[in-house]
Amino acid sequence: MIARILSSLIHGTFFAVAVVVASKTAPLEKSGSAIAAVASGLTLATILGVPLGTFIGHHWGWQATFWVVSGLGMTGLLSLLAIAKETVQEKTFAAITIFLFGFIAFATVPLLQTRIVLSAKDAPPLASAANISAFNLANAFGAYLGASDSIWPGIDIC
Description:
By secondary structure, the protein is mainly alpha-helical. The protein has six helices and no strands. It is globular.
């Protein structure tokens, strides 16, 4: 449950910051394409993550799916840390980093939703609706925190 809450908190903040960074790092005439690339990360994560997670879970158990997602998350985090200094000066690295972070972060959502639905034997639609509602509330809260001056004091993220 803690992992679900933590993953949901980053989504609103991620989209808010990623869209702004993508639009500002791209040339003015390409800002729409940059924002579309950010949004396509969610789509790709859903399209590729659900079947891949199902395949892994079917062959090696559902826990293996979460280990793979955790490994991808750690790979993304280490990649971000390794190139963080370069992203300040290199717009291309910033765009790639944001895309990879979004892809890895959003890959957990279908897996978590699938696990909730499979666990709720008596009322899967109710469990699904409650899960998505909680996720959307956390998105809003994450966006609020991400834009808060208490989280980023003195830093203009826009």
